[in-house]
Prior knowledge:
Helices cover 63% and strands 0% of the residues. By secondary structure, the protein is an all-alpha fold. It is elongated, with a radius of gyration of 20 Å.
Amino acid sequence: MHQGRPKNKQLTLKERYQIEGLNELGFSARAIATKMRRSNKTIARELRRCFTSKYCTEIAHTHATMIRKQARKFTKRSQELIDKVEGLLKLVAPE
């Protein structure tokens, strides 16, 4: 992993546009990773996000956002669950 980047930091839309531009110029995943100070695995995985042969920033960003929203930690506490717990706490907690 490259220094200067927090661990597990997700790619931003701006970074995805940079990847698209560098990819169109013929840079390899490793060269893009070096230039952006990212792991080459991160860039290679990102380039595979698009189902077409050409990397598309909008498709990749939408796909990543969808996966993030389905992640366990994103959905851990739904509003329904919060309301249910608060309701149960009102039944047992003294006022």
